Amino acid sequence: MSKTLYRIYVIELSKRVYTESVKFRKANPQYNGVLECLYVGMTSKLPTERFEQHKTGYKNKKGYKLSSNIVEKYGLYLRPSLYNHIDPFVTRNDALIAEKEITLELRREGYAVWSN
Question: Which of 114, 100, 116 has its CA nearest to residue 21?
């Protein structure tokens, strides 16, 4: 039986998210408008499958929405060059920690970043 692996993925968002979303703007006071707006997530699925779930407003069997409203509205495409170098994680907790670290790292580099 194969063990579940958790992957980090990055989605480029339309820059409209910065002007239209107060909470996105408040989360990124350092943003100067030069680089892109991004979403960082963690998944046990393939990043392409997870991106599709975000864009379609996917709900699980219990009716819980598992997609991010920000990605559903502003998501453009995956940015593999920003996550392909990150090895998958064996535990969900390790992936969540890495998601937070990568979000902060990308903000330090000048991107505006959202993650849940």
Answer: 114
